Amino acid sequence: MPAAAWAQSAPAKSASAPLTLRATCDAQRQPAMLHVQIANTSDQPRAVIVGFNAANGQTHVVDSIEIIGIRPATGANEQYVYVNPKYALAKGPQWIVSLAPGATHDIDLPVSDFTSSLTFFTLDPAAVGGTRLVFEGRPSATKATAVWTGTIETVLEPCK
Question: Rounded to two decimals, what is the model's pTM?
């Protein structure tokens, strides 16, 4: 059963970010899954770049989410980037999600697809508690598409 409590966002760069980030970790599923929700808390429509569309145009690939943990040995941050192994080398046009005021967008990501940029080990579900989930809203490749840019994050509870 997934954890019942949602972690609330704490915007990293802007105290007035129009989006919030929530997440739960479900260790009962195989593989363990992180359920991520991006919510538009403003009264204006927003669009965000979540990743890219793989070459076939049917597959959305996330590349804007990472987890930051603290290395026990040194106390330094350890960055775990989300890499879908099936599409690790794929490229494609930006995947833009439009959010009406009050709307949410949900994504399920296997915890094992988060890979340390330092050690290249995958994230263990037992180590999720206390880490920070970060969403980075990146600028659009074209000026014609207005998207929200900035960073929002939330602290994750342990997987349940």
Answer: 0.86
